[in-house]
Amino acid sequence: MTREEALAQLGASSAHLRGQAARALGTLGRSGDLTRLRKALKAETVSHVNYALQDTIRRLAHQQQPDLLTVDDADVIPGEVRQQIYGQAVEWITGFLLHEIASSIGLVRLAGRRELGEFWDDSETKRHLESVNRVFEAIETLKNAAAVPRPEQFDLAALIDELISTYPPKTTEWISTIGARPCLIRGDPSLIRMVLVNGLRNAVEAQETAGRAPQPHDVTVSWGETDVDYWVSVLDHGAGINGPVETAFEIGNSTKKNHTGFGLAIARQAVETMIGSLVLEPAKDGGALYTARWRK
């Protein structure tokens, strides 16, 4: 495919051809093609083509200004800008993986059911495929955690109550809450939900495996705000943190059964998407303290 053919195919009715053209222009394109590429990106509705166009635009824009960023300049990029760039990269990569993997998983499941018949439900194939599917769902959640925030006003206290109520009564007996009611804030409730779900789940599981019967206030969820940010913390009195704290945030790092190891990475990405930070540290009297803060 020549450069001229690729430019012409950007307007093709076939998403496959548009994707081929977008990828080809990553090699064949020139900085003068950026206007047409951006126009095509604005009109593109198919995700994998959209990602290919974004990648090509980034490549050509870099060629246009090769000396814009030096090693010394990189040292003075604000942290929040680095977070945004990283978030964009996560969203692009996870989106590409989801597009490539989704159909394959479906085809494997269909073939397995057809070939194994009545033996499917008890098969190792089904068990391993369910494990792959959990990773797929975790990648999808990670992509959503990196998406552009959609802020709205909502009650943070009500969201926390809703999440706690998903646990059985015997568990909620030892979960305490401290914070203003109502606590009306402006933010993206879906991103904040990701942060809270992970913190609360880890705290409850730590308490349930602590080797003793849970006591009232063993898990405490607190929230509030300052002049510049909102915050929420989850404190537990479980066994504490095993190993270096930073490794807990690495994707795939989990010692728990049926856990993908994406939880903390998803929570951190969700907070950083809101221009914030997530800290996991040992608690004063044992256990762990999980604190998220994000900008107003």
Shape: globular
Taking all residues together, what is the mean pLDDT?
85
Question: How many strands appear in the DSSP assignment?
Answer: 7
How far apart are the first and last residues' alpha carbons, in Å? 49 Å
| Sheet having the most strands | 5 strands, mixed
* Percentage of residues assigned to helices: 40-55%
CATH architecture of the largest domain: 2-Layer Sandwich
Q: What amount of the residues lies in strands?
A: 5-15%
Radius of gyration: 23 Å
| CATH topology description of the largest domain | Heat Shock Protein 90
CATH class descriptor name of the largest domain: Alpha Beta
The total of helices stands at: 11
Total discrete domains: 3
How do the strands of the widest beta sheet line up side by side?
Answer: 2-4-5-7-6
Which residues form runs of ≥5 with pLDDT under 50? 65-74
The named CATH superfamily of the largest domain: Histidine kinase-like ATPase, C-terminal domain
Key terms:
296 residues, Leucine-rich Repeat Variant, Heat Shock Protein 90, 3 domains, 5-stranded mixed beta sheet, two-stranded antiparallel ribbon, HATPase_dom, transferase, kinase, two-component regulatory system
Tell me what you see in this structure.
The protein is globular. It is of the alpha+beta class and 296 residues long. Residues 65-74 have low confidence and may be disordered. Helix 1 (3-9) packs antiparallel against helix 2 and helix 8 runs parallel beside helix 10. The longest helix has 38 residues, at 79-116. The relative contact order is 0.09. The chain has a 5-stranded mixed beta sheet. The protein has a two-stranded antiparallel ribbon with strand order 1-3. It has helices spanning 3-9, 15-28, 34-43, 47-64, 71-74, 79-116, 124-145, 156-164, 169-172, 189-208, 263-273; strands spanning 152-155, 175-178, 184-187, 219-225, 229-236, 276-282, 288-295. The protein folds into 3 domains: 3-64, Leucine-rich Repeat Variant, CATH 1.25.10; 71-145; 152-295, Histidine kinase-like ATPase, C-terminal domain (Heat Shock Protein 90, 2-Layer Sandwich), CATH 3.30.565.10.
